From TrEMBL:
This is Protein DD3-3. The chain crosses the membrane at residues 723-746. Keywords: Membrane, Signal, Transmembrane, Transmembrane helix. The lineage of its organism: Eukaryota, Metazoa, Cnidaria, Anthozoa, Hexacorallia. Residues 1-17 form the signal peptide. InterPro entries: Protein_DD3-3_O-glyco.
Length: 771
């Protein structure tokens, strides 16, 4: 266990700044309420969010190794110097993890649960279990933490600066909720940490419970079962634990054990910069797209899992990472002071006396004098400061979902999950949730990949919310849009299926969508995988859940599709786009700390630390050489360098990318190529007329390696060995010169030729066995 002050240094000091998860559907503690506000903000966890947020219960399943797009909105900016921001994404699975069937909070007293076991009482939603909360409730809190002038009403881990009254929300431990990385064992497994300060990534990863176990004090069982034990406290430090005896103060009493609990034995979490978002805004990020993190689902097989995202928003009044900002600065009880002892006047050039006189004190709602002396007293300003909120954590959690093993026919295949986000209503009625949309809204796939259409919804939305079909119900379907009638954008009409700007579906007999069979098109349109007939003009007789299952896509092109129910023009538009090409597409957001995108056998790109100056969405497209050659010719260019293609084309996007330092690239070469190879680059796939040689390329074990500091289009070409050819030509010339000179000499001196012939004849006779 780290000493309190060191722990305080490692912790993130966790301003109304709500966060809402939209995919998977974030609950915000909702279950199936028919009102716009949730019924119980304390049902499962402490979100600190607005009561209007969240989606009603609905579960999905995903296959291991597939990519799940996590989408969210956060209110008070990230990636901006306006404040300090961290986001932590985690998941947990367990046999008793469940959504429940009531909005009541799971009881604290087992007498109120069936069979006196709240862990298995399925009426109540539950993530963390009863034992986890009980240990938290009676374990000493970390008393080295800065709590400002907040009056914590107890000494256990359920009392924190943000939760001074010790309010219970489900079986969540408030101290664990407010701090990361936490110093006691937890059931949560780390996915990713996004931070305004990527220099912290090394610490986040090394301290993650994924790779580093935690210590905790195990007290004797009889102590826990004692009728009086609730008056006691479980030690939280090694020294306290080793000094523990039961019964208390008995030298011969049973000792507690300071035990190390193993790590989760998982890779460290991904860590990078936060996605940029602006202040006072619950909406999309840069480019008008939702901020997302693509999570590759782990290799596990479990039916009850839950995902959580925590959002830390802190102001700059103090440095929560400074070890000096600790409990020694908390407001002392004696002698009583007007607030905490944190020096906030220093930043304004005020000594402690002047700061106190003018109200520059870190406390609740201070009144400050902006000007010194008597004049300042008539110009006082009261600041709306709540010391339990200037460093604050918000949270949202998903409803339960399953992660399943792949069947044999899907092993090694790329599976793309396509879901539906949003709920019934117009933008005002659903806020801070969102209206219907497909997510991801645009999916890039390779011919032969698999798409998994699956979504859920609710039948208990507010009945007066706008929408088609039966009041209060969510429904979605998929139909390809009517064929393109006029050019739209830069795409070629022959490669586009469906007019993106249209609102009518293509006639079913003419519809072509992803190369799917007619039965699958019927299922996507009429939801008949779980529904047999009924009144389906607006899908009312279908259920809220739909699953087509993974389907292989064939046929390149851009496919625009729609939902026929949720397309009330000017009010909502539920459309999606899938782009299928012959190229393999790989992508990842990489920032200052560096990262890699690997594919194939030993292929990929690698960015070292500080190669990039900011977060960049790196996209790689690997294109067969024949398709690449066609692309070159289509753009009016030609390969005027090299002889033959020695590799596939590699498009590094953004193609305008320029990095601080060079990054490494490895690309497989065509099997059997033995000629010399050179790498070439064109700056823009829209203009492939000019190609530049990439210096320093080398080949080893079928892979060409090089370094570059630019995006663009790259390809390897075989080249003739000019040195060898030059050597051969020179040798031939020398031989010809010798022959020509000899002929010329003997023509001038025929007697010399006669003498040589005579000498050769004599040598030949001397070699015979008989003369």
């Amino acid at each position: 266990m780290l000493p309190s002050l060191l722990a305080a240094c490692l912790l993130v000091v966790f301003v109304r700044g709500d966060i809402y998860m939209h995919n998977p559907r974030g609950s915000n503690n909702r279950l199936d309420e028919s009102g716009r506000a949730r019924n119980n903000a304390n049902r499962m966890f402490d979100s600190q969010n607005n009561n209007r947020g969240g989606y009603n219960v609905g579960s999905l399943y995903y296959y291991e190794g597939s990519a799940l797009s996590i989408e969210w909105t956060n209110q008070h900016s990230c990636g901006d110097p306006n404040n300090h921001c961290e986001m932590v994404m985690q998941y947990m699975c367990g046999e008793n993890v469940r959504d429940g069937v009531t909005t009541q909070t799971v009881p604290e007293n087992p007498i109120l649960c069936q069979n006196f076991d709240c862990n298995t009482d399925k009426r109540f939603g539950m993530h963390e279990n009863y034992e986890y909360y009980t240990n938290c409730k009676y374990r000493n809190r970390n008393k080295g933490l800065f709590t400002a002038d907040q009056k914590l009403r107890g000494n256990s881990a359920k009392y924190t600066r943000q939760n001074p009254g010790g309010t219970r929300r489900g079986y969540e431990c408030p101290e664990e909720r407010d701090h990361y990385p936490y110093w006691h064992p937890t059931p949560w497994k780390d996915i990713a940490v996004l931070t305004n300060n990527p220099e912290r990534c090394k610490l986040y990863q090394s301290e993650s419970e994924n790779i580093k176990g935690r210590y905790a004090c195990e007290v004797p069982e009889e102590y826990i079962s004692s009728s009086r034990w609730r008056n006691y406290i479980i030690p939280s430090t090694e020294d306290e634990c080793k000094a523990f005896r039961y019964p208390q103060n008995s030298p011969n009493g049973t000792r507690a054990t300071w035990k190390q609990f193993p790590s989760h034995d998982l890779p460290p979490p991904d860590c990078r910069e936060t996605d940029w978002s602006r202040d006072n805004h619950l909406g999309n990020g840069i480019g008008g797209y939702a901020n997302t993190y693509n999570w590759t689902l782990p290799d596990l097989n479990h039916e009850q899992c839950v995902l959580r995202i925590r959002y830390n928003i802190s102001t700059g009044e103090f440095n929560g990472w400074d070890a000096k900002v600790n409990s020694s600065l908390n407001q002392p009880l004696k002698p009583k002071t007007p607030g905490s002892l944190l020096d906030v006047g220093e930043k304004f050039g005020l000594d402690s006396q002047a700061a106190a006189e003018r109200g520059y004190i870190y406390k609740q709602n201070p009144v400050v004098s902006m000007f010194p002396g008597e004049a300042g007293k008539i110009f006082n300003l009261q600041l709306a400061i709540n010391t339990n909120q200037l460093g604050r954590v918000f949270q949202d959690r998903s409803h339960t979902f399953a992660v399943r093993r792949r069947p044999g026919n899907l092993k090694g295949k790329n599976i793309h999950n396509v879901n539906v986000r949003g709920k019934r209503g117009n933008i005002v009625q659903v806020y801070p949730a969102v209206e219907y949309d497909f997510t991801p809204n645009t999916v890039l796939m390779r011919n032969g990949d698999y798409v998994h259409f699956q979504w859920t919804g609710s039948n208990t939305n507010p009945n007066n919310n706008d929408g088609q079909g039966s009041a209060g119900t969510d429904r979605s379907n998929v139909l390809v849009l009517e064929k393109q009638r006029y050019p739209e954008g830069r795409e070629k009409p022959e490669t586009v299926h469906g007019q993106w700007g249209g609102n009518y579906p293509e006639h079913f007999k003419k519809a072509t969508f992803l190369g799917l069979e007619r039965d699958d098109l019927t299922s996507l349109a009429t939801l008949n995988t779980a529904q047999f007939r009924g009144e389906m003009s607006e899908l009312d007789d279908a259920g809220t859940y739909f699953d087509l299952g993974p389907r292989k896509v064939t046929g390149t092109g851009t496919y625009h599709y729609m939902c026929s129910r949720n397309n009330n023009f000017s009010n909502r538009s539920q459309k999606g786009r899938i782009v299928i090409g012959d190229s393999a597409v790989y992508g990842k957001k990489i920032g200052v700390m560096g990262g890699a995108i690997e594919f194939g056998e030993g292929e990929g790109v690698w960015f070292e630390k500080n190669t990039l100056g900011q977060l960049v969405n790196i996209q790689l497209e690997k294109m067969p050489s024949d398709k690449g050659d066609a692309m070159v010719k289509d753009k009016g260019g030609k390969m005027g360098v090299g002889d033959e293609y020695a590799s596939e084309f590699l498009l590094i996007n953004p193609q305008a990318l320029r990095t601080r330092e060079k990054f490494s690239v490895k690309l497989g070469i065509v099997r059997g190529v033995t000629d010399d190879i050179e790498m070439y680059r064109s700056a823009d796939s829209e203009n492939l007329r000019t190609w530049y040689k990439v210096p320093g390329a080398s080949v080893n074990e079928g892979v060409v390696s090089f370094q570059t500091d630019k995006g663009g289009v790259y390809v390897a070409r075989t080249v003739t060995n000019k040195a060898a050819i030059a050597g051969i030509v020179i040798a031939c010339v020398i031989i010809l010169v010798i022959i020509g000179g000899t002929v010329f000499y003997f023509r001038k001196h025929p007697d010399k030729l006669t003498q040589i012939n005579t000498s050769i004849s004599n040598v030949c006779r001397s070699c015979k066995s008989e003369v």
